[in-house]
Amino acid sequence: MLNLAVVHEAIAERIPNAEALVFRDRRLTWSQLTDRTRRLADVLRRHGLGCRTERSELSNWESGQDHIGLYMYNGNEYLEGMLGAFKARAAPFNVNYRYVDEELIYLFDNADARAIIFHAAFAPALARIRDKLPNVELWIQVADDSGEGLLPGAIDYEQSLADAEPAPIPGDLSADDLYILYTGGTTGMPKGVLWRQEDVFQSALYSGTPESFEAVIERAAGGGPRVLPSPPFMHGAAHWVAFNMWHVGGTVIVQSNVKKLDPADIWKTIEREGATALTIVGDAFGRPLIDELRRGTYDVSSLRLLTSGGAILTAALKQEFLDCVPGLRILDALGSSESGTQAAQYSSQGQKVTTGNFKMNPDNVVLTEDLTAVVPEGSTELGWLARGGRVPLGYYKDQEKTLATFPIVDGQRYSVPGDRASLESDGTLKLLGRDSVTINTGGEKVFAEEVETALKHHPDVYDTVVVPTPHERWGQQVTAIVRLREKADPTEAALTEAALKDVAREHIAAYKLPKQFVFVDEIVRSPSGKADYRWAKSTALRELGIDIEGS
After folding, report:
1. Closest listed residue to residue 79, CA positions, set 43, 143, 111, 34
2. Which residues of the chain have pLDDT under 50?
3. Which of 238, 268, 471, 505 is the most interior residue, by most CB within 10 Å?
4. Beta-strand runs (E) in 112-250
């Protein structure tokens, strides 16, 4: 049975004294981590949290478990919070710590949160909104360097663990127990994706195909990589990697500065801990990291694998990493909250490096535009990237979106998160981007991510996000928000725009080229590195002098 808590405990029995997690001056062995998460589970159970209704009695968009919000920066407590909840048969869910009060109220209400584990820094925000969260019965505060006192009515995390009992996990843990991941909400309201733990284990949290529970434990007993997942754990990309490495007996390393991307801190941590793997999110993480690596003198000879997911990592930047870190391999992973890992691309020195050309994982296909059939191999028909087999149950409390995102095609249930794609003649996947950020200009569809990738081929482009803005003739026009590299001179805007178009024209058709450019000093992205398209469109409209209400 591939229950996440059961797997973790079984691995701990085989390698109790190996390092499981390193954060600042805290080094936790598998045995110590087991003790702490058992204690947290005891705290949760003593407050009445757990499973109330078994999966067999529920619809796909329903949950029979109590939900626990994890409102924290990275650290050992975040991953402990996940494991402790699993061991209590409660379901943890991620909370975006950048949310303002209104967004937090929506999320906690939508998730029916009964408990919240939070860093002290967020106590003031919770104090402002707690009267609007009547269902929350347990508040567990994690001490930090913010200087905030204990929220009235909350219990201290470390003290509660010290007072608890490290009782063995109960025997009723199930493969049906939930793993919940809330989407980022960058193109719409956040949605809670419900996975069975056994399904998410095989689709997103394990490197390879598990032949059996025993095979998983035996593999992990040999030890694994030392990985630093640099994005926030509140997004799937980072904690997916953490659990992947744990499930092969590896060590999870957390950088010291968890409040912002700090390239120097990340490289110092890799050097100090001898990390063998690093996880980033596309160019938004990659560019600052490679610039710092070129400036500094870091020993990163231990690094063997760089994994990127969640955003585009362009070919030029991949090549820079390969040039700077001898022996490095780069894994570009494609997936989503609703699908798990869907496709991959490996790059290494001496090979041609590209931005795309993904090889699809088993069970993944391209479905036709009308979602009635699978696009045959060899066809270049535009369709929807989809995954069959082990996919989520659905969206919490949303039957309509569940049925729309997980349709049945030819008797097979698929996950269709919204990525448009086609297959090259050799079967290679060509990913075009999310349909939700597609621009319809003069009847032609333009995918924002395709234009962004083309613009990034210009060496003066540090970052860019592409959005639609209104146009009287074409309905919408392609507008690029661009941050130039420090050395670039944006004063000659016309020349800069012409140069950008000339480079992009080598990679995309003329009708896809931006009609307008907006140059900014900083591009707002989520802490995970994903584009914030709502911010981008608002900025473009404002800078172009377009009436937002009229748009």
Report:
1. 34
2. 550-551
3. 238
4. 113-119, 138-142, 155-156, 178-182, 192-196, 226-229
Is residue 287 within 8 Å of 466, Cβ to Cβ?
no
* CB contact at 8 A, 219 and 132: no
Which pLDDT does position 401 carry in this prediction?
A: 93
Yes or no: say if 266 and 255 are a contact pair by the CB < 8 Å rule: yes
Q: What is the DSSP letter of 375?
A: P
Residue-level pLDDT at 37: 98
Neighbours of 398 (CB within 10 A): 17
- Which tokens is 2 given? 């591939």
Domain 360-427, classified CATH 2.30.38.10, yes or no: yes
Residue with tokens 């990493």, as numbered in its chain: 321
The terminus-to-terminus CA distance of the chain in angstroms comes to 52
C-alpha span between 317 and 404 (Å, rounded): 37
Say which residues have a Cβ less than 8 Å from residue 114's Cβ, sequence separation at least 6: 49, 66, 67, 68, 90, 135, 136, 137, 138
Q: Are 492 and 542 in contact (CB under 8 A)?
A: no
Q: Token digits for 349?
A: 């020195």
User: What are 360's strand-pairing partners?
Assistant: 343
The structural architecture, per CATH, of the domain 436-543 is 2-Layer Sandwich (3.30)
| Model confidence pLDDT, tens digit, residues 333-386 | 888 899 998 888 889 888 888 776 788 888 899 999 899 999 987 787 888 999
Nearest Cα residue to 438 out of 369, 348, 365, 374: 369
Task: For strands 359-360 and 138-142, give the pairing.
Answer: unpaired
pLDDT value at residue 188: 61
CA distances from 186 to 233, 303, 477, 530, 537 (A): 17, 32, 21, 8, 11
Measured over the CA atoms of residue 224, residue 226, residue 230 and residue 234, the dihedral's sign is positive
Pull the structure tokens for residue 392: 């989520």
H-helix segments, 247-342: 263-273, 282-295, 315-324
Length of the chain: 551
Query: Where do the domains of the chain lie?
Result: 4-260, 360-427, 436-543
The three-state secondary structure class of 411 is coil
- Provide the pLDDT for residue 196: 97
Q: How far is CA 83 from CA 36, 41, 77, 179, in A?
A: 10, 8, 10, 11
Helix H or strand E encompassing 343: strand 340-348
Phi, psi of 3 (to 5 degrees): -90, 135
Q: How far apart are CA 356 and CA 334, in angstroms?
A: 10
CA-CA-CA-CA dihedral for 214, 215, 221, 227, to nearest 10: -120
Q: What is the DSSP string of 158-185?
A: HHHHHHS--PPPPTT--TT-EEEEE---
CATH number for the segment(s) 4-260: 3.40.50.980
- Helix (H) or strand (E) holding 26, with range, is strand 26-29
What whole-number distance in Å separates Cα of residue 150 and Cα of residue 408? Answer: 49
